[in-house]
Amino acid sequence: MSTTATDPRAGSDPYLPGHGDARYDVVHYDLSLGYKVEGNRLDGEATLTLRPLVAAEELHLDLHGLQVQKVSVDGRGQKASHHHGRLVIRCAARPGQQLTVRVKYSGKPRPVRSRVLGGAGWEELEDGVIVAAQPHGAPSWFPCNDRPDSKATYSLSLSAPPDYTVAFSGELRETRRRGNAVTWVYEQAVPMATYLATVQIGRYELVEHPGTLVPVRSYVPARTDRAVLAETFGRQPAMLTFFSSLFGDYPFPSYTSVITEDELEIPLESQGLSTFGRNLLDPAWESVRLIAHELSHQWFGNAVTLRRWQDIWLHEGFACYCEWLWAEESGVSTVQEEVDRHHGALAHLEQDDLLMVDPGPELMFDDQLYKRGALTLHALRVEVGDAAFFEILRRWVREHRGGGVTTDMFLEHAQHVAGRDLSALFGAWLERTALPPCPRRTGT
Ligand SMILES: [Zn+2]
Questions:
Q1: How far does residue 183's CA lie from ligand 1's centre (Å)?
Q2: Angle at 151 between CA 315 and CA 277, to 5 degrees
Q3: Same domain, yes or no: 246 and 125
Q4: How far does the centroid of ligand 1 lie from the alpha carbon of residue 180, in Å?
Q5: Are 33 and 139 found together in one domain?
Q6: Which of 4, 212, 241, 320 qualifies as a cystine partner to 374, CB 3.0-4.6 A?
Q7: Beta strands 86-93; 80-83: pairing state
Q8: Is 338 within the bounds of a domain?
Q9: What is the mean pLDDT of the chain?
Q10: Which residues are in the CB-under-5-Å shell of ion ligand 1?
Q11: Could you tell me the distance, in angstroms and rounded to a whole number, from the CA of residue 401 to the centre of ligand 1?
Q12: What distance in Å separates the CA atoms of residue 199 and residue 219, rounded to the nearest whole number?
C-alpha cells in the first residue's frame, strides 16, 4: 500500500511517521488504570472526548505493545483493528460532532521503539516505573492521538499497591484505599500534549520546598541526604521565582520533581513535573543546571509547545539559555561567559549538517542544537537590547500559553515586539549551517 501526506497511516508529523491523525482533535482524556508492579501488568480503560476536524470514515489512535479488548463510540460497540501500533476505528465522523471513544485494553507496557529515536515511554525501573515519553512514547501506556499540536485536558485514576506513590503530570485530587490497592486520582486542567503526560510509580518520600508562590515538591528515594537535597532540588523555589520575574507567572498550579532510586542517563520534563535520576543529587553545577533547564521547560515547551517536532529549538534552545540565566543569577558565571565558552566549542565542530529550522529526527536532541539555539537567543538580545528581548519572551508566553507555536510565529512575534526587521539575524542563525560570529554587546 502506498502512503501519501494526506494518508492518515503516514501520521501527522514527518519526524514521527505513523503517529497521530490530523483529522480530529482530542479535547479530554479520561484514563482509568490498574497497575501491578510485580509482573508489570496494566489494565486500562481510556475514554477520549474528540472532535472531528474533517469528514472521515475511520479514526486512527496510537497504542503500542498493548492489547485492545473492546472499543465503543458514543456507547455503542464499534469495529476496530489494531496493527503496528495503530488502532483503526471504523465510524462515520463529521466536523462539528463531539464523539466519545472508549477503549478497554491491557498488557505489559514497554517503551515504544524507533530506529532513529530509540525507546521512549513506559519503562520499568528496579522497583517502579517512569514514563519518559518525549517524543514518541505516549502510546506505550494509553491510546491517544499522538501529535504535539493536539492538546487536551486529562483525568487519571490509577490503582497501585499501597506501598507505592503514584505521581502524574497534574494535580492530586484524592487517594482511596480499597483492599490491597490505593487509587490515586489526578486532574490536569491545563491543556497538555500527549508526550508531556507522565506517570511515575515508586517507593518515594514527599518533600515540600517552601518559599515561592506555587507548591514545589520532590518525591525522593528513602534515606535521601537532606543537605544534598537542599543544595540541589531545594533551589527550585528560587529558580521558579527568578524565571517568573523574567517570563511571567509559572504556568501550572504546582511543580513536582521525581528523583528515582535508579540512575538515569538524562532528566526529562513533563507538564508540571520533571523526572531525574538519583545521580543528579549532587550539588555540582552540572546537576544544578539541569534542574534549572527542566524547570524552565514549564514555560518553553510545556505551556508554549511546538506544533511540529522540527521546531524543537523553541524548547531546547530556550531551556539552555535559561541555564545560563540561572548561572548568572546564582553567581556561577555570566551569560556572556557561557556564550563565549559554548560558541568557542561549537566553532571547533563541523557545522555543515545541523539546520536549526529542520534538524531532522537524528539531530533534534543533539547538544549542538541546544547550544546554538541558546546562542541565537543571545544574538537576538544583543541586537534588540535587554528590555525588548525580555518583553519578547514575556509576551511570547502570555500570548501562546496553552497553545502551539512554530519558528515562523516566533520570528514574526520578535519582529513585531522589537519593531524592526530581524530576518538577517534569524536567517544566519537558523536557516543556514555556518556558525555566525559570537554575539557580544559592543564594547564587551
Ligand atoms: Zn530540554
A1: 31
A2: 50
A3: no
A4: 38
A5: yes
A6: 320
A7: antiparallel
A8: yes
A9: 96
A10: 316, 319
A11: 18
A12: 13
Measured in angstroms, how far is the CA atom of residue 34 from the centroid of ligand 1?
Answer: 31
- Print the domain residue range for 262: 208-298
C-alpha gyration radius of the chain: 22
How far is it, in rounded angstroms, from Cα 158 to Cα 166?
8
CA of 271 to the centre of ligand 1 (A): 13
* Residues 167 and 258 reside in one and the same domain: no
Tell me: do 194 and 213 sit in the same domain. no
- Report the C-alpha gap between 437 and 339 in whole angstroms: 11
Model confidence, pTM: 0.96
State the pLDDT at residue 352: 75
Three-state helix/strand/coil letters over the chain: CCCCCCCHHHCCCCCCCCCCCCCEEEEEEEEEEEEECCCCEEEEEEEEEEEECCCEEEEEEECCCCEEEEEEECCEECCEEEECCEEEEEEEECCCCCEEEEEEEEECCCCEEECCCEEEEEEEECCEEEEECCCCCHHHCCCECCCCCCCEEEEEEEEECCCCEEEECCEEEEEEEECCEEEEEEEEEEEECHHHCCEEEECEEEEECCCCCCCEEEEEECCCCHHHHHHCHHHHHHHHHHHHHHHCCCCCCCEEEEEECCCCCCCEEECCEEEEEHHHCCCCHHHHHHHHHHHHCCCECCCEEECCHHHCHHHHHHHHHHHHHHHHHCCCCCHHHHHHHHHHHHHCCCCCCCCCCCCHHHHCCCHHHHHHHHHHHHHHHHHHCHHHHHHHHHHHHHHHCCEEECHHHHHHHHHHHHCCCCHHHHHHHHHCCCCCCCCCCCCC
CA of 289 to the centre of ligand 1 (A): 11
Q: Is residue 328 part of a domain?
A: yes
The CATH number given to whatever domain includes residue 223 is: 3.30.2010.30
Mean pLDDT on 329-337: 98
Listed residues 298, 323, 351: the one ending a domain: 298
